[in-house]
Amino acid sequence: MYKLDTIISLAKRRGFVFRSSEIYGGLNGCWDYGPLGVELLRNIKEAWWKSMTYRDDIEGLDAAILMHPKTWEASGHTSQFSDPMIDNKSSKGRYRADNLIEEHIERLRRKKKTNLADEIEKSLSEVDELSDYFDIIMKYEIKDPVSGSTDWTEVRNFNLMFKTFVGPVEDTGNAVYLRPETAQGIFVNFKNVLETGRQKVPFGIAQIGKAFRNEINTKNFLFRTREFEQMEMQYFVKPGQEQKWFDYWKEQRWNWFVEYGMKPENLKWKQHDKLAHYANMAVDIEYKFPFGWGEIEGIHSRTDFDLSRHFEYSGKKMEYVDTVNKERYIPYVVETSGGVSRSLMAFLCNAYDEEVVTDDKGKSETRTVLRFHPRLAPVTVAVFPLVNKDGMPETAHKIYKGLQKEYKTAYDKGGAIGRRYRRQDEVGTPFCVTIDGQSLEDETVTIRERDSMAQQRIAIDSISTYISGKLK
Ligand code: ATP
């Protein structure tokens, strides 16, 4: 397991991720995706979009970020979308009370104090009111991780939605929220999509988009940020059939991560001990990050909670009329709710590797390599002229321009060929094409694969077919 700092440092150095508004000292919980990061992000979204919507029973949607404020009353976000917050009086540190306790449990587990860790974990799972968090923190003398102080305030609720105003007047009647999840845009469009898509239950609606949460603590790089992207799909089913579809989507989503290269040993299921007010079943897919296990996607059975509430608050019937069986009902919903940026971070950690390689002359060195799935890799192919003379740059450039029409392609003419391979390995480019003296004589090149480092000679006009074959 590599350190998170090592991965963050590569991500910054090679232009995957930058701090937001870095020249002003950055803005906590916000990150910018650089030239390579944005490609990776787009490839993850594209892979998800294709697997979710290139099928008969799922339609796509791109709903507005700002929604009618009643949406959030109906969904319960205005009253319930909050986290328990606690302050340390002496250090002025501010924490999520549940996270503070969870981290304490983690520390105890690392010190092999299993019984105590189990006892506190049990108390945490039984929390009913805000004061229960406080009681646990006081009973087990949980300290401020920075100052060591145990001088805590009461635990209060903090609503995570960002509030703003539509139009020039800042009064409560004009207040709107930046959406804290994309799901509600799907629920309010249930009827529109059902009718225009001429769908029949069971069917789903998928959406990728920004979500905003005013998280109390942001940390662990892209894991918990205040602005992030989600990829969510709500699948509408006949009540009573939710178990079947819950199992189906669990399997689909697990397999999707594995298909795109996630090592199964880095993934695990986490059963929810306590269900959210809208759910009757819920599991998370967790990834083994360098800081510990963390959720990357949730699969939830949300009953008819959301559609019923929107029916109640809008007065618009959120029903499905089954004309064949002559019945009408409010569908149940099974959702898959993943984070794009959290998944990106998981894919980055999963891909990072360092290995010692030995060259033809017996010289060893450590190469850093991002072993991305070829369809996720930010750059698909890099083209190098072996030397910058004898017609090689001209041929290389022509090949580069041709490949660029189909693939994200890099051109690198600087330094020894070994150095150029290393530069591409470090950003995960799966294929490197080198044009050498022989290329000019017989129209062939060498193509080298990132993971095996094996090279083979192929005809120039078969490069594209070779790559597309590997991407399939
Ligand atoms: P957590 O318990 O970590 O706060 P959550 O259970 O509130 O997450 P959901 O509401 O189920 O998360 O959101 C679905 C997905 O959206 C999560 O699995 C995660 O990938 C992503 N996500 C949620 N909050 C954040 C955040 N603050 N930063 C980045 N991604 C997030």
Q: What are its keywords?
A:
BirA Bifunctional Protein, domain 2; Rossmann fold; five-stranded mixed beta sheet; 23 strands; 472 residues; 36% helix; Herpes Virus-1; binds adenosine-5'-triphosphate; globular; seven-stranded mixed beta sheet
Short description:
The mean pLDDT is 95.
| Full CATH superfamily name of the largest domain | Bira Bifunctional Protein, Domain 2
Distance between the amino and carboxyl termini: 30 Å
Strand percentage lies at 25-35%
CATH level 1 name of the largest domain? Alpha Beta
Report on the biggest sheet: 7 strands, mixed
CATH architecture of the largest domain: 2-Layer Sandwich
User: Any idea of the CATH topology of the largest domain?
Assistant: BirA Bifunctional Protein, domain 2
Count of runs of 4 or more consecutive helical residues = 16
Q: What's the rounded overall pLDDT mean?
A: 95
Bound molecules: adenosine-5'-triphosphate
Shape: globular
Strand order of the largest sheet: 3-9-10-16-13-12-11
| Total number of domains | 3
Poorly predicted residue ranges:
none
Which range best describes the helical content: under 10%, 10-25%, 25-40%, 40-55%, 55-70% or over 70%?
25-40%
Quick one: how many beta strands? 23
Coarse structural class: alpha+beta
Radius of gyration: 26 Å
